[in-house]
Design goal:
Elements (H helix, E strand, L loop, with lengths): L3 H5 L10 E2 L2 E2 L5 E2 H13 L5 H17 L9 E2 L5 E2 L6 H16 L3 H14 L7 H17 L4 H11 L21 H14 L3 H17 L1 E2 L2 E2 L20 H18 L3 H13 L10 E2 L4 E2 L2 E3 L2 E3 L4 H21 L1
Antiparallel strand pairs: 1-2, 3-4, 4-5, 6-7, 8-9, 10-11
């Protein structure tokens, strides 16, 4: 895994959220959302090497310091080390749980896994009123259950997420919401994994149906043609701009998880479409990554691409290529 750009965006405190071109915009500081994304990607990568291990320590420390005793999480921090805003259970809380769960399952280090589980256990006591926050948290719970079957705290979190998911078809489309917003693939992924871990075959079927519809909506001419960053609802035209790399990563993650549950080889072919989107097989026929540095570009726009290489987009690119390697291994 090429960590050059990720390392450039990282200092001894955390991961800078934004960049101007390839240079970090330090004045905007750091956020838990991106640090959690980074920890997920690196925990999945078992290849040896000090750069990966050093980065994981920085990100793990950042998340630990963001957690308050109640399990709520503060999202933002500046370069002087000061945290900003109240601790809460927004998306960043859910992503922190997702990261800790991934470390528990995939880090390969017993000490790191034990510390991450303790962090997970504390924050998994909380709940959020926001569906995306609960979805991200439940993905972390699914990671815990993969190695600790029957873990009560993880199961309770998944059951409470299930209770927030409306039935498909309620909004005249096979989706549990009235419109699409962001990281939509994660919703379908959470449904599939929640069904798997609670022996609910009906929910697995609903999640797979939602994922299939999401892909069909965003494919045209044999390529991914994504909804715009502002979201989508029935009647809106496609393609839309700006298209966000995080949408590709969420779709690809969902396909890998769905494959793990169903063993359907068609899902692996979709992962390849996600990889090719970054290589220029998209609505603008322009590359969305810099393979030499491991950077991802921030958006596919109506005029080409946003040349900035922020943390979210870089990690989306890294995640998709990581998942494509898993898909290739499974297909052969």
């Amino acid at each position: 895994m090429n960590l050059q750009h990720l390392t450039r965006l990282t200092d001894d405190i955390g991961l800078f959220e934004h960049s101007k071109g390839s240079e970090p915009r330090v004045e905007h500081g750091y956020c838990v959302d991106d640090v959690a994304r980074a920890l997920i990607v690196l925990a999945r990568d078992r290849s040896p090497g000090n750069p990966r291990n050093a980065l994981m320590r920085i990100y793990s420390n950042f998340l630990a310091q963001a957690q308050d005793p109640s399990g709520r999480i503060v999202n933002r921090r500046d370069t002087s080390g000061v945290w900003h805003g109240a601790a809460s259970t927004g998306d960043h809380w859910g992503r922190a749980l997702w990261a800790w769960g991934t470390v528990v399952r995939s880090s390969g280090d017993a000490n790191s896994a034990a510390e991450a589980y303790e962090r997970f256990r504390i924050s998994a006591r909380r709940r959020s009123v926001f569906l995306r926050s609960m979805v991200f948290a439940s993905l972390g719970a699914s990671q815990v259950l993969a190695v600790l079957p029957g873990n009560q705290r993880a199961l309770e979190l998944i059951h409470d997420t299930k209770a927030m998911l409306p039935a498909l078809g309620k909004h005249s489309m096979p989706w549990p919401e009235a419109s699409l917003s962001y990281a939509n693939g994660a919703v379908a992924e959470a449904m599939i994994l929640a069904g798997h871990h609670t022996n609910d075959s009906g929910l697995i079927h609903q999640g797979r149906r939602a994922l299939d519809w999401l892909w069909q909506l965003q494919c045209a001419g044999g390529r991914l043609s994504l909804i715009p960053h502002k979201g989508w609802q029935p009647g809106d035209s496609l393609p839309g701009f700006d298209q966000q790399p995080i949408e590709v990563a969420a779709l690809v993650d969902a396909c890998i998880s769905a494959y793990d549950v169903t063993s359907d080889p068609d899902l692996l072919e979709r992962v390849e479409l996600g990889r090719r989107w970054f290589e220029g097989h998209n609505d603008q026929a322009i590359t969305m990554c810099d393979e030499a540095t491991g950077a991802g570009y921030d958006a596919l726009t109506a005029g080409g691409r946003n040349e900035n290489q922020g943390a979210e987009s870089t990690l989306a690119y890294m995640s998709v290529y990581q998942r494509a390697g898993i898909a290739l291994a499974n297909s052969t």
